[in-house]
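During the second year of the project, the team shifted from modelling isolated chains to modelling whole assemblies. The rationale, set out in the original proposal, was that interfaces cannot be judged from single-chain predictions alone. As a representative example for this report, we include one of the complexes processed in the last quarter. Its constituent sequences, exactly as entered into the pipeline, are reproduced here:
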Amino acid sequence: MKFSKELVKGSTAMLVLSVLSGGAMYGYQIIKELEAASESAFSMNEGTLYPILHALEGEKYLEAFWEEGASARRRRYYRITEKGVKELERQKGEWKSFSSAIEKVLRGTSRYAR
Amino acid sequence: MPDKKQFIEEACSGIRDRRTRNEVAEELSSHIADKAEDYVLYGEDPEEAERRAVGDMGDVKKLSRELAELHSFFPLRKFRTSLILFLVGFLLVSFRLDAGWFDDVCAYVGNILLFVACFNLKSGNRLLFGAFALSAACFAITIANDVLFSFPPFEARPAVGVAIFVTGIILSCARMLCFGYGVARVAEGKAAKRVRRTGWLYIASYADIFLAFAMPLFLPIFIVIFVVFVLLIAIAIGRANADIWRNDREVALVRTGAMGKAVLCVVIALSVATSSVINAILSTRAPQYVEYAAQDVAEEDAVLAEEVKERILEDSKSDAYFAALSQRLVEDVAESDLLRLSGDEVETDVTYYNSAFGRSEMAVFALHVGVDGTRRVTALSYFAYEQGAEATGVFESYYAARNATIVNTAQYPLKFVNLCKREGTMYTVVPEYEYVSGERAGQEYKSVRGGEVVSGYVIFDMIASDGNAVGINANSYLHTSPVRQPYNYEIIEKDGADVSGWQLLSYGLSWFILPESAEE
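Output from the structure prediction step:
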């Protein structure tokens, strides 16, 4: 199922942090992990990942380093920082509260709609 | 659809920092290559795989915008560098040590740094562009000053000097206002406060300099305030660096293109070359000291000498007459080789002294500070005295009162120089005494000094070497005794002949070079 851009946009940073909480990854790897973890629910334009990664790096939620792969091609890996872990926890909490509130409204609306 | 290279170039086109741009480009390239490899594994041919991988990256224009916005911290780095350059340049042009060529070098280098700093930031906003234009004008004024004061026409020099000075002040004030206010206005985002503070501090420190000139009595206070401002500017610049990783779009500057950098290099190279050429010419045109021969004196000068003598004898105090004599000195000095090649500062002083003991003098002094910092005093004097007149004390108090910073009569010896020849000599021979020529130097005079008969050699327009008495006419003595009290000259004999009565009338143009240690 494809979600609307607005829904995805607000949570992409949290999703990226969450993926990286499992270990350092490079950009393409993050895309593939995100797809796999969401069972292809989240499939973004891959170019849009990099502004998000760089923004998170700018906020010191991630740190980056270069590594040379098997094909002698350099890849930029990202690793979540302690600050990033705290931010992820905060966003998770926020998301849980948000989704819970949404759920409550939806359940309430359904009851009244009968 | 663009190919991989085009896509990456366009995506990174908005990133101003070259290093960052290269890194992001490599990252995107690596991503596309990885994606293309996967497509190849699925059976696509490499070209089609790469094309699809590029397509999967999405809208290149949107990506370019987002990357440019994120990576705009580069301008802040460049901005900070420019602020530092401006600060150093500002310090160099603000301080003068009265050290001749060193001051000129500082002003020159300072203007270069200010020009470079303003050049870097010229695209920030209109004010910063204005600062750039004004710094270019200030730079041009600095070069024009060197050129105009080194070559003819000399007659226009006073007017030109005033015009350059006034223009330079106006331009540098405007430059500082534009830069300071432009810096204050250009910053956006969370780091803006610190950047704005830098701009206002520049304006405040410049105002402080002006107040220091206007109220020299409080100079130490203004210097302290200036130092505090400079420290605050340095701290503000340093702290601006801490915001470099903020995710705000802090400064909007346009990258200086290759052409701009080339123009900058050419401008700086030309200005350095111009300055070097001027200084090389100046150094090869140093005045030659030529000794005068008595027969060089023109008839009209001899007549003038007689007129002066009669006037002094009559105790005339005609202002017009002495004004004419002083004007003559100023004109003669202005045409001399020495002043033409230096002339940084000229002060003239005209005075007339009439001694109650029958000595009368009129002297005009012009002080020049040469491009190499050498201080020269040109003096034209007319005086004559009666037998027994007390002359020396007059010189001491005269010099001490009027030119204390030039001559330290109590401590340092002065150098001997010869006269500098000019066209249509103005040096004359007093009919009674033929003493004006270097060839004739060394005629022995005897005098009573402090009750003792002493003798010495008259050296025309030379200065007494003991530093105690400064004689600028032929009746000065060269003597070696370290007498430090005023004493009287009474010339009684010249080469054995009695020369009492009106003894000497001297009239000449001379100057002497002061050693640096003579400065107060």
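Chain B has three domains: 4-70, 75-284, 294-518. The radius of gyration of chain B is 35 Å.
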